[in-house]
Structure formats: C-alpha cells, structure tokens
Amino acid sequence: MKPAHILFVTSTNLSTNPRCHKEMQLALQNGYRVSLLAFTLPGWSKSFETGYVEELGINDTTYLSSGRKPFFPWFLSSILEKASRLTHKFGLRSASVTAMALSKRAWLINRYLKKYKGRPDLIIAHNPPTFYPVAHFAKKNGIKYGIDVEDYHPGEGTDRNLHQYMISLMKMTFPDASYISFAAPLIQEQSVKLLKGHLPGENNLLTINNVFPSSNFSLHGKSGPKNNGKIQFVWFSQNIGPGRGLESLLPAMDHFARNVELTLIGNPVVDFIERWTQDRSYVHVVPPLQASELYGSLSSYDIGLALETISEENRKYCLANKIWAYFQSGLFILASNTPAQEKFLDEFKDHGLICENKEDAYSKAIEWIVGHIVDIRNQKNKRFEEARSTGWENERKKLDSKWRDVLAN
After folding, report:
1. Which terminus has fewer CB within 10 Å in the chain: N or C?
2. HEC assignment per residue over the chain
3. pLDDT tens per residue, range 353-401
C-alpha cells in the first residue's frame, strides 16, 4: 500500500516558516510522501533554503518566483492585485477576487495548481495567500485540505481594507477545511469569536503551539557570548528594525551599560542599526543564523527579550517563535505585556517577568534583574527541565492524530 501523499503549500519558504518546516519533518518521520510548493525569496533566507531542503531529504519541491523574473507572471499578478482591490470596492467579492486583492501570490499559486498533475491525499495551506488556491484546488478535485493560522491574520498591519479582505477570505475558505490549526491559544480564541458560523466542527480546531524539538536545545550552548561576568541579554527576529520594542528598551539599558551586554540576531536594517546601536558599545549585532545554530547557542545567554509593541492587533494574541525558544533554552524571559505573553508567563510563573513596553518600565525591570541575577542563573537548570515537557515531541501528537483521522475518513 502506497503511503499517503501530503502537499504543503506556503507563500514564503522553509527558512522563514518554521511551522511548515516542522510539519514536513513530522510527515516524513511518519512515512508520508511529502511535496512542497513555496517561493524563492531574496535576501538572507535564500542562502539557507537549500540546506533546509537537503536536511529534509525531499526531491519533490517547486519554488515560484517572488520577484520580477520571469516578467510576465510578475506583471500580470501585479495588475490583477490592483484590479481586484478596485473591483472589491465596487462589490465584486468572490473568493478568487478577494484572494488576489489580498496578495498577488494567491494568483501565482492558483496558476500553478491549475496545471498540477498530482493528486495528493491532503493539502496543507500555510500563510493567507495560500488559503484560496488550496481550498479551490482541493474542492475541485475532491481532496481534503487543512489550514494553518500562524498569526491573528485579520489583525496584521494597519490597513483596514486588507483586514476586511482577510476576514472575507477566511469565512469563504475555512468552513470546508478538514481541520484548522492555530499557533497560539488566543489566536484560536479570537478567530473563533470572529468567524462564528464559518468554521469546521469544534473537533477540527486545534492549537499547535510554536514549540521546537527539545533536542534542539542544550544547557551548554555551542556558541554565544563569552562568560565575562556581565548579564547577557539576547533578542532575535528575521529583521533587526523599528517597531519591535527596541526603541524603548535601548535607552533603558544605557543606565546599566557597565553590567550588561545585548546581542541582536537577525538581518540588520541599516538605518535602524546606524541610529540605535552604533554608539552603544554593549550592543552586538549578529547576522541571521541557521535554526540549529541559533537554538544551540541560546542557553549561553541569561535573559531572552520578547518585546512586542501593540501597533497591530495581531501582537496582542500571538506567541512568537522567540518566546518559546527562550523558554526551551531555560532563559529567564523579559516580556512586554501583551495579553498572550501575560497568559504565558502566568502559566509559567518562574520563567520570566512582564513589564510595559515603556522606557521607565524596562529600567525598573532591568534593575530588578541586576539585583536577582544570581538566583536567575541558579534556576536555569530547573527552568530548562520544566520546559522539556512542552517540546515539539509532545505537541506534535495532536497534529499527528488529526492527520491520521483526516486521512482515514
């Protein structure tokens, strides 16, 4: 009997979509045949992508271009995106028009799937531009599909038109899905409130937390800062840039410059780096790291920074990869007071400290950390061991069970 075939579709790539990467690993470990449809992206992730694919050991991969080459698909998708946004305002609001109004990549994915000769047993959509093409292709061909909701998508950004496109698209594509997975409890809770009556059955809704395999983490970091006695803070993201809380944190850290070092890991946004870090000798900027190198180095630090501004509604409800990575590394977490992070550290009370995303609040929090750093370091082993029970090894069981149910029926 042939193994079931799962097609994963993402509008980004594996380097920038750890959830899709983890799910593909799980599918391969469980003996499924796995295919991938993704995009080539410029910048730092492009150099990492080949390594991710080779690590997975899959040959059935297709990458669509996100740039201007080839010219015709890029040009036509750009025109259709603008036209769809215009016609949407005048009441033409079909699922296809709404999807193209949201993102030109929806058209590029749909164009590819129209010519796709395979017949997978299950298709899994990652990221909003994939929702309509996957749902349309699956329903047209009698194939089951799942959707992963990595963020509270109707609350991303500040463009109200895009918010409405997103809500409409979710209402049109979610009801017929075999399951919907959510990346955090509050993302699921808020989505259910918003989409009441436009969802599959309650048993087909599940939260899959953004945790990682416990084996990725160690109490003895393979790299990272040298032990010079200073308190080691770390923050990472895809980009080191504005609007992520660093503007409030850095002036607060200036008061403790003799006692602390801060490592920022990610793709540096030049203007931001020049303005905010060049005159701060305690700040060290590190370019993006492969996931294995990043997670393997985190335990070398003392404090993980989970700073979120509430400039967009999504930030209230999401739990970013970084907070889980700090948690699984045994770090003490300094987190801004979003509802999701407050809920997280209320559940894991000894793993961190919540404060407002303001300079004076960060100053008080850092002062407290300086005064308690001995205890914080002494408790790292305990935090690390407590976190092991929450790793991907346990979280994956929910997704594994759901796939088996979907494919058996």
Report:
1. N
2. CCCCEEEEEECCCCCCCHHHHHHHHHHHHCCCEEEEEEEECCCHHHHHHHHHHHHHCCCCEEEEECCCCCHHHHHHHHHHHHHHHHHHHCCCCCHHHHHHHHCHHHHHHHHHHHCCCCCCCEEEEECHHHHHHHHHHHHHHCCEEEEEECCCHHHCCCCHHHHHHHHHHHHHHCCCCCEEEECCHHHHHHHHHHCCCCCCCHHHEEECCCCCCHHHCCCCCCCCCCCCCCEEEEEEEEEECCCCCHHHHHHHHHCCCCCEEEEEEEEECHHHHHHHCCCCCCEEEECCCCHHHHHHHHHHCCEEEECCCCCCCHHHHCCCHHHHHHHHHCCEEEEECCHHHHHHHHHCHHHEEEECCCHHHHHHHHHHHHHHHHHHHHCHHHHHHHHHHHCHHHHHHHHHHHHHHHHHC
3. 999 999 999 999 999 999 999 999 999 999 999 999 899 999 999 999 9
Is residue 210 packed enough to be buried (19+ CB in 10 Å), middle (13-18) or exposed (0-12)? buried
Q: Which among 47, 48, 41 is positioned nearest to 67, based on CA atoms?
A: 41
pLDDT of 42 reads 86
pLDDT over 90, % of the chain: 86
Greatest C-alpha distance within the chain: 66
* Other CB atoms within 10 A of residue 108 CB: 23
Cα angle 160-240-36, degrees, rounded to a multiple of 5? 70
As given in the structure block, the two tokens for residue 305 are 């920074």
Delineate the domains of the chain, giving CATH numbers in brackets.
Answer: 5-211+392-408 (3.40.50.2000), 214-390 (3.40.50.2000)
The token pair that represents 170 in the structure block? 């979710």
**In which order are the strands placed within the sheet that holds 303-306?**
283-286, 260-268, 231-240, 303-306, 332-336, 352-355
Please work out, in degrees rounded to the nearest 5, the angle formed at the alpha carbon of residue 12 by the alpha carbons of 172 and 320.
85
Nearest Cα residue to 170 out of 158, 187, 186, 185: 187
Confidence of residue 307 (pLDDT cuts 50, 70, 90): very high
What's the mean per-residue pLDDT of the chain?
94
